[in-house]
């Protein structure tokens, strides 16, 4: 089984590298509207990173009905993916997929 699995809504598609997984999440799933600030971000890693980086744990608990285990899981996921991902490679992959403006901008 490939090491990276998409965890969005029971999708369970798996990929050999993290860039392929994140590109799939950006182009293959509906974007996510943040419940805290109403910003639209790609579903999956970017939605999680948005929450971890832009909002406090208290907001996450309140708006997403999360518990501290959820938060720890997401924080360590963001750390793991950030350490692993090659943003340049992801950009190239998204360009090759023909992904346009708003989704690509979220990667900046
Ligand atoms: Zn998926
Ligand atoms: Zn937000």
What does this entry show, briefly?
The protein is mainly alpha-helical and 108 residues long.
Pick out its properties:
single chain; 108 residues; mainly alpha; two-stranded antiparallel ribbon; 4 strands; binds zinc ion
Fraction of residues in H or I helices: 55-70%
Kindly state the number of beta strands: 4
Backbone CA Rg: 14 Å
Order of helices and strands: EEHEEHHHHH
Average pLDDT taken over every residue: 90
Number of helices: 6
| Class from secondary-structure proportions | mainly alpha
The unreliable regions are none
β-strand percent reads 5-15%
Major beta sheet summary: 2 strands, antiparallel
| Distinct ligands, ions and cofactors found in the model | zinc ion
Number of domains: 1
Describe the structure.
This protein is mainly alpha-helical and 108 residues long. The chain has one domain (4-105). 56% of the residues lie in helices and 7% in strands. Helix 1 crosses helix 5 (87-96) and helix 2 (45-54) crosses helix 4. The protein is globular, with a radius of gyration of 14 Å. The structure holds zinc ion (ZN) (2 copies). One zinc ion binds next to helix 1. The site of one zinc ion has 7 residues, from helix 2.
Topology at a glance:
Blueprint: E1 4-5, E2 14-15, H1 18-28, E3 32-33, E4 40-41, H2 45-54, H3 57-64, H4 68-84, H5 87-96, H6 101-105
Helix pairs in contact: 1-5, 2-4
Bound molecules: zinc ion (2 copies).
């Amino acid at each position: 089984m490939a090491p990276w699995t998409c965890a969005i809504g029971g999708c369970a598609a798996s990929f050999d590298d993290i860039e392929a997984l994140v590109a799939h999440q950006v182009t293959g799933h509906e974007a996510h509207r943040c419940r805290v600030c109403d910003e639209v971000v790609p579903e999956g890693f970017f939605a999680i990173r948005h929450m971890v980086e832009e909002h406090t744990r208290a907001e996450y608990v309140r708006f997403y009905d999360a518990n501290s285990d959820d938060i720890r899981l997401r924080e360590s996921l963001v750390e793991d993916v950030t350490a692993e991902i090659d943003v340049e490679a992801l950009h190239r992959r998204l360009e090759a997929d023909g992904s346009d403006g708003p989704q690509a901008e979220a990667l900046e």
